Amino acid sequence: MKGRDRDAWTVALWRLAILASVLLLWEFGPALRDRGWPIPAAIDPYFFSQPSRIWERLLRAACFTDRSGAWLLSQDGAFSQCLTGNQRNLWLATGATLRNTFWGFVVGVSSGVLAGIVLGRSQLLARIFEPYIVAFNSLPRIALVPLIILIFGLGDLSKIMTAWVIVFFVVFFNTFEGARAVDRDQVNAARLLGASEWQVALTVVVPSTLAWVFAALTPAISFSLIGVIVGEFIGAERGLGKMIVEAEARADSTDMMVALFVLMAIGVALASIIRRLQAYLLRWQGHYQRGG
User: Alpha-carbon dihedral of residues 267, 24, 256, 262, nearest 10 degrees?
Assistant: First the structure.
């Protein structure tokens, strides 16, 4: 086995060992503490539930099992009946949160890139808008959530706007710096060859700014998810944030942990997709080349 493969196996085995240790301690820690084992009192099922209960509740919330634990997938039409009959199932909540996160991310990134390139390439516009951008950026975006809900209501639009307010500035500042850092020699060479301002922007500025833009996308997708969840905390018709708030009102840590684990899985999956897209679109850079 090569040294590189051996290192990969070592890392994977350590990760599995740590995960198994945490889950075992989480599941059996309270019972062992009752028998005199030195288990920290912080591992309390009232606050963190237990992995077995969370897994059972996850299957039920996703319409895979019923309250008795029987599998609905093995019963004709039971799964679809659960999906249509239970408007609070996990799929609808996850779908609402994902849909709003996606649109908040798309709108925030699009407007942030456009504004960053325009202001980054125009000294006059940058000086005119600088105080307004600094003023809005200094305002805690979370403080705007009640106002956004007051304007756009409890529907999806208010969650998208909340995500947009957070994502826009993250992407804008990176794009702005990237547009200002474009090599002047490349711009002058393009102009010398007869390129118009539009052609210079399309063939020189945008490609040179891509690395800066993609550097902001991974945090941007996380911030978009945060914005949507915060909006759902304040008021929503459905969503994972609403599930967490309802679970808190019932002091039900199991439902809360189900929503948190789903959010964790969504965050990891979205960040992984962005990194793969970044590696593909910037494959011409040495850092992203295979074995580079």
Answer: 30
Q: Are 89 and 61 in contact (CB under 8 A)?
A: yes
DSSP-assigned states of every residue in 159-184 = HHHHHHHHHHHHHHHHHHHHHHTS-H
Instruction: Give the per-residue pLDDT at 288.
Output: 61
Chain centroid offset of residue 42 CA: 28
Q: What is the DSSP letter of 35?
A: T
Angle between helices 156-180 and 90-121 in degrees, nearest 10: 30
Query: Pick from 84, 61, 63: which is nearest to 72 by CA?
Result: 63
pLDDT (0 to 100) of residue 292: 44
The answer for residues whose C-beta is within 8 angstroms of residue 39's C-beta and 6 or more apart is 25, 29, 30, 32, 33
List of the chain residues with pLDDT < 70: 1-2, 284-292
The pLDDT score that the predictor gives to residue 289 is 59
Distance CA 34, CA 26 (A): 14
pLDDT of 285 reads 67
Q: How far apart are CA 185 and CA 197, in angstroms?
A: 15
The CA radius of gyration of the chain, in Å to the nearest whole number, is 24
Contacts of 278 (CB under 8 A, 6+ apart): 214, 217, 218, 288
Handedness of CA 58, 51, 260, 271 (dihedral sign): negative
pLDDT in the model for residue 291 = 47
The pLDDT value recorded for residue 128 is 94
How many CB atoms are located within 10 Å of the residue 188 CB?
Answer: 12
Distances (CA, A) of 78 to 60, 69, 74, 82, 90: 12, 13, 8, 6, 16
Cα 183 to Cα 191: distance, rounded to the nearest angstrom: 13
**Residue 136 burial (C-beta neighbours within 10 Å; 0-12, 13-18, 19+):** middle
**Cβ(45)–Cβ(38) below 8 Å:** no
